[in-house]
Amino acid sequence: MRVTVSHACHRRNDGTCYLISVARRLPGHEVLRGDAVEIRIADTTVRAYAHESIAAAALASGAHVLSRSLKYHRPRTFFCLEGHCSGCLVRIDGVPNLRACQAPCASGTEASGQNAFPSAEVDLLGAVDFLFSRGMDHHTLMTGSSVLNKIANKVVRQLSGLGKLPKQAREEAPEVARHDVEVCVIGGGPAGLAAATTAARAGKRVLLLDDQLRPGGSLRADPRNGRALAEQRWQDAIDAGVTVLARATAIGYFPEDDGGVLAVAQPDRMCRVYSAAWIWATGGYPQNLPFPDNDRPGVIAARALGRLLVDHGIVGGEKVCIVESPALRAEMALLAAALEAAGAHVDRVPLASVTGTRGRGWVHAVDADRKIDCDLVAVAALPSPASEGARQQGCKVVLDPSAGGFKIVVDEQGRTNVPNAWACGDVCGYRGTRAAAEHGAHVGGEVARGG
Amino acid sequence: MAGKIVLCRCEDMTLADLEHSVARGYRDIEEVKRYTGFGTGPCQGKECLACVATELARLTGTPPAEIPPFTSRPPLSPTPIRLLAKDPAAHIFEDEKK
After folding, report:
1. CA distances (Å), B33 to each of A19, A376, B56, in order?
2. What percent of chain A has pLDDT over 70?
3. Contact A414, A439 (CB under 8 A)
4. Any bridge partners for residue A262, and if so which?
5. How far apart are the first and last CA of chain A?
6. A87 chain-B contacts, CB cut-off 8 A
7. Summary count for chain A: helices (H), strands (E)
8. Are A135 and B14 a contacting pair at CB < 8 A?
9. How many Å apart are CA A53 and CA A100, to the nearest integer?
10. What is the pLDDT of residues A287-325, one digit of tens each?
């Protein structure tokens, strides 16, 4: 069964369709985009650039709905653009369940949607969403009769799961690499880069792991010259002697294994990392906010919108509505000003006033104290501390909604309760790029001094 | 689409599902996870854990600091299993047999 990503289309009165493309590449960013390449998205050849992710290229070419959700088959697409949500899972060159936002555009790359019949935009299984408009409790669904229950189980098993297996097996499994260092910094955002650079300048052998296509983290979404700062601090870290691994994701810490080992996945191999000291600088994940129909395509994280603009030179929408939590008012004023300078119209509404969103294939309005027409909704919520790796190591966390979620508990030197583990930046509670960098430099210095 | 407030987009878990879970007596974060399936999709709770825990605190009148996170298990991010195939730990049971 062929499943395709659909290109957003508006229907004219006479019934014909025309393609719309809400995202717009800004002129003057050619150098950062890299060389032009052609890739295939949903059986359509589109222009992309070597330094763009497939997600960025898809947005700029008007490809919108990528897949369908597991239970109600609601349309799904990009949300965080940082490889952490499940919104942009697609099939790339025959391999299912890859994140479009973490896949680079190479010439000839072929991406298609998944999890829908017959296509992601027109998915007949979406009827489930209407049939169970008030929700569905799968514990009691079709359990009245055992015959009916057996049939229901068979149907559900056919429908559930994500993607289809590749047609052929991959080549032989790669060898596992090994790194032994004095300091391992997990996360290459403002805090991690600063911590690594400071520790390396003090003479430590430092390894920095970052899971994105390029290090820089939230700096790459900061309209205050964030992209240039990210490049500069990445270079500073390398100049200080830090070994920087990009596209390297910490997938688990195993305290019982050889006195503690961090498993790290790169696109084509695994590494075991051993370190005398650990610094968690994993930042926070962009979050959605709870308002009705907060999952429509076109509702994306505000930081993703900032990332598109700052890192890719792409204006995500021409009429943007920012739904914001009060804690991020200052940051959103900066983002709105940068978007307006790029020619977009921006409305900002507080979360408390939002009663819903409109639009089927793509959002077209927000209902607040008035109806706000838009072609993109950006959600500004406090990022949730990315503390789950540290939790596997035994680091204590506490739920603090004013800090974004489960923050790592640290003392003034950035020490956790685990003797050789420190933490810095937004993973200890949201503080923003500048304060995170200062915290990182401070904690990196403490670790180099031996705590 | 109806006005669903989605808390976990991977598993389509809504605020109404959380309320239903609490009403049936599943009020602990691990119980809520098992009852609703939230946090068990490809993102493993990166987008929903803080939000569900905060809403759970509100619904049950529990101070947030008393709500623990659910257990974090590897892999923290979807990982092709072939990358693990040559790791010594992947063969520990095989070795033990010899």
Report:
1. 41, 31, 11
2. 86
3. yes
4. A253, A273
5. 58
6. 9
7. 10, 29
8. yes
9. 7
10. 999 999 999 989 999 999 999 999 999 999 999 999 999
Task: Return the closest-CA partner of residue A363 out of A132, A74, A100, A125.
Answer: A74
Output the pLDDT for position A384: 98
Q: Is the ipTM of this complex over 0.85?
A: yes
Tokens of A290: 């709870």
d(CA A409, CA A336): 33
Are the beta carbons of B1 and A134 separated by less than 8 Å? no
Which pLDDT tens digit goes with each residue over A7-65? 444 444 444 444 455 689 999 888 888 999 999 988 888 889 999 999 999 888 887 77
Element (H or E) spanning A184, and its range? strand A177-186
Q: Which of A69, A162, A251 sits opposite B9 (nearest CB)?
A: A69
- Sequential DSSP letters for A370-412: SEEE-SEEEEE-PPEE--HHHHHHT--EEEEGGGTEEEEP--T
Instruction: With beta carbons under 8 A apart, name residues in chain B contacting A295.
Output: 4, 6, 9
What pLDDT score does A94 carry? 87
Nearest to A129 among B1, B79, B87 (CB): B1
Query: Smallest Cα–Cα separation from A442: which of A417, A412, A420, A418?
Result: A412
What gap in Å lies between CA A35 and CA A52, rounded to an integer?
10
- Contact indicator for A421, A278 with CB cutoff of 8 Å: yes
Residue A282 and residue A187 in contact, taking contact as beta carbons nearer than 8 Å = yes
- CA dist., res. A219 & res. A238, Å (int): 17
Calpha distance A15→A9 (Å, rounded): 11
This prediction has a pTM of 0.90
